[in-house]
Amino acid sequence: MVPALFGVPDPTLGAVLAIAWLFVLAGTVYRYVRGNQSREQFYLVLSTGACWLAYSLLQVSGGVTGTAEVGLVALAVGILLGGFGAGALWWRSRPA
Fold it and tell me: Rounded to whole angstroms, how far apart are CA atoms 5 and 25?
């Protein structure tokens, strides 16, 4: 990992990215529920956003220790697996 990018520590950057990806995921769920986004696009953004959110949480886990670190890593792995699942659904929803 890079210790600092433009003087910003890795865990801080990860937290900012995690919050940004949470907004992206919330926005895509909102658009999908309102009918403004196709199912295929929904699965694609959900898959991509979940993978990046998991990566961001792994960056944050570098700044904490103990149970919090284990919890963040476990959460990141769960979100990553969910992203892979959404990617599989996207793959299946594509037109032939």
Answer: 25
